[in-house]
């Protein structure tokens, strides 16, 4: 049984294995094993493992395993921050991401962030962590000081941080994380009157609220609120280490901070999960439906039953923000359907799920079948179950699935599910909220397909409509999300944060074209991107992406042929396109050759194709496409 917000207990053997690998000089060679070795480690063992992993040579790892997701992270701030690197390395590795750290000098954050020519910008980080602590304010106070002095210092500090955020937003290409400032009692207690303490507390919270608002003002900034982490009982500081080693935040808080950053790093490298698959017995309700019957399961009405209802409310909350919900349970389907539709304690309804699977097949088979039906990889799944056996079976059979073992005490279920932020994203868009409905519509399409003798007849009756147009400012976040979440039809594997999308669209001769689609079953929203660049008489397709939700309907072919026709109409001599193989896009390797392109260069990790525009096939007859190529600014 686990407690909320902790990892399941395990042995220290994985950490020893890592030390053995490092000692034998094999850590880089065996790096793909690391993620599995770290799975389930307690927080203290994970931190120790981080010290070993931080010694790995990132260049050597990439030389041996070039497809390893990698993120360059710059760490800067007011105090000594070297102690953040080991837990950060471990958290990234636990999610299969290789960390390339760039650590700034002590108290250099103002210069590093304020000067676009600094070493921080030169490192080209995808993620910048500006770690703030209370001393950034109290180090600048006179002695003696008053609450009014703190207010003045806070105003100046927030204004300065706003300026740094604005500079980064204009000149940086990644994401900047700014955290709120804890307020330890050792500062408030130096004011002996309660009125002054209240004034200080109000000013401090108001300053933190202004920091949190930076995320709305600057698209490249992600504010991180430390208050929820402190509420878990983590100390804000270690006074002894702060005094002798120059640290600001406590090691425990830095480790917890690193976990949050690990979630963000996982998202920025395209590894955010999309589907939550839950068990029923012991998970969404107490008891065993087959033994206890609908009236005997624990769900609402009693303290323990209310705990399961509370867990369902959290699951429903996740689903409302675009997480796809599903069930796989070893039960007969009739009784399950009756409970989902008729039990007065149910919070979740049948329409909340994209699929409910109740049968006696092994759960890995059910997960694989669901992945096929949704046209998603199982590595986009989170599986939550109270059975150690079922969790172990899924973990062994489908190692890409994130397995959440829910213990016997249901009060901890919520904490165990939310502990790892599997579904964390930069921003929840309208498209995200509509995702469950669209996937249910996709299952309807499959049922519709089954009524036809041929795919061609099905496509003709599907009434697919497509629009291709420059991405508008309001669509930048969604465009970035497509690059982060699309794997199978991402023809270069390149991922872009919102600032990069915006910068690409703003460059002269560039276009970032959004693909929108719909059909007789509904509107799919933005489902893909085509990034083009004009260079003299050549048009370059720098990347082409399409969501797996709309594969095999001719959408990608229609859009490509539209781009070719527009290039020829505007005087281009040829169109060149790049394909960079990744671990997941092998199925799209023939896309350009199948559409009249010829291979003209093999650069090792990149294939370059060219179309001479002499003959362009018409778009598929069943697709109604409209295109607009004018500048959208």
Automatic annotation (TrEMBL):
Coiled coil: none annotated. InterPro entries: Acyl_CoA_acyltransferase, FkbH_domain, HAD-like_sf, HAD_sf, HAD_SF_ppase_IIIC, SGNH_hydro_sf. It comes from the Bacteria. This is HAD-IIIC family phosphatase. It comes from Micromonospora harpali.
């Amino acid at each position: 049984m686990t407690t909320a917000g902790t990892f399941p207990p395990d042995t220290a053997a994985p950490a020893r294995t890592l030390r053995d690998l490092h000692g034998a000089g094999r850590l880089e060679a065996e790096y793909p094993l690391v993620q599995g070795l770290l799975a389930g480690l307690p927080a203290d063992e994970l931190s120790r493992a981080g010290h070993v992993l931080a010694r790995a040579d990132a260049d050597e790892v990439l030389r041996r395993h070039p497809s390893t997701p990698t993120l360059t992270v710059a760490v800067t701030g007011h105090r000594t921050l070297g102690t953040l690197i080991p837990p950060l390395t471990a958290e990234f590795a636990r999610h299969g991401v290789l960390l390339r750290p760039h650590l700034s000098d002590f108290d250099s954050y103002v210069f590093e962030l304020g000067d676009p020519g600094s070493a921080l910008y030169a490192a080209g980080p995808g993620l910048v962590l500006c770690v703030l602590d209370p001393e950034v304010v109290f180090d600048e106070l006179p002695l003696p000081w008053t609450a009014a002095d703190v207010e003045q210092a806070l105003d100046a500090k927030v204004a300065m941080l706003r300026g740094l955020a604005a500079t980064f937003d204009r000149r940086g290409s990644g994401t900047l994380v700014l955290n709120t400032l804890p307020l330890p009692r050792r500062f408030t207690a130096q004011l002996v009157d309660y009125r002054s303490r209240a004034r200080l507390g109000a000013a401090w919270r108001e300053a933190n609220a202004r920091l949190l608002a930076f995320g709305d003002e600057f698209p490249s900034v992600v504010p991180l609120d430390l208050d929820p982490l402190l509420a878990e009982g983590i100390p804000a500081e270690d006074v002894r280490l702060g005094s002798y080693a120059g640290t600001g935040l406590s090691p425990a808080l830095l480790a917890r901070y690193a976990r949050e950053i690990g979630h963000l790093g996982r998202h920025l490298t395209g590894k955010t999960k999309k589907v939550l698959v839950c068990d029923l017995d012991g998970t969404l309700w107490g008891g065993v439906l087959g033994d206890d019957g609908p009236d005997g399961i624990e769900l609402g009405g009693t303290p323990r039953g209310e705990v399961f209802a509370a867990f369902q409310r959290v699951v429903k909350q996740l689903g409302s923000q675009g997480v796809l919900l599903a069930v796989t349970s070893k039960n007969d389907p009739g009784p399950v359907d009756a409970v989902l539709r008729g039990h007065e304690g149910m919070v979740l309804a049948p329409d909340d799920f994209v699929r409910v699977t109740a049968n006696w097949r092994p759960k890995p088979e059910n997960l694989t079948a669901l992945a096929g039906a949704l046209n998603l990889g199982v590595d986009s799944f989170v599986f939550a179950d109270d059975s150690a056996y079922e969790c172990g079976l899924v973990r062994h059979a489908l190692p890409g699935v994130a397995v959440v073992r829910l213990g016997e005490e249901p009060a901890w279920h919520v904490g165990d599910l939310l502990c790892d932020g599997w579904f964390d994203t930069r921003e929840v868009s309208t498209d995200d909220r509509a995702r469950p409905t669209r996937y249910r519509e996709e299952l309807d399409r499959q049922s519709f397909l089954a009524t036809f003798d041929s795919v061609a007849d099905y496509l003709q009756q599907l009434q697919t409509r497509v629009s291709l147009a420059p991405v508008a400012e309001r669509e930048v976040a969604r465009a970035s999300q497509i690059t982060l979440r699309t794997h199978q039809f991402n023809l270069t594997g390149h991922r872009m944060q919102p600032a990069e999308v915006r910068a690409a669209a703003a460059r002269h001769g560039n276009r970032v074209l959004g693909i929108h689609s719909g059909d007789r079953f509904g509107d799919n929203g933005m489902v893909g991107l085509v990034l083009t660049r004009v260079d003299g008489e050549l048009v370059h397709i720098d990347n082409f992406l399409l969501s797996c939700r709309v594969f095999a309907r001719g959408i990608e072919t229609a859009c490509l042929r539209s781009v070719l026709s527009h290039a020829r109409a505007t005087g281009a001599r040829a169109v060149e396109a790049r394909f960079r193989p990744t671990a997941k896009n092998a199925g799209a390797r023939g896309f350009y050759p199948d559409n009249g392109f010829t291979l003209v260069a093999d650069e090792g990790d990149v294939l370059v194709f060219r179309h001479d525009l002499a003959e362009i096939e018409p778009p598929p007859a069943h697709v109604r496409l409209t295109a607009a190529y004018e500048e959208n600014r």
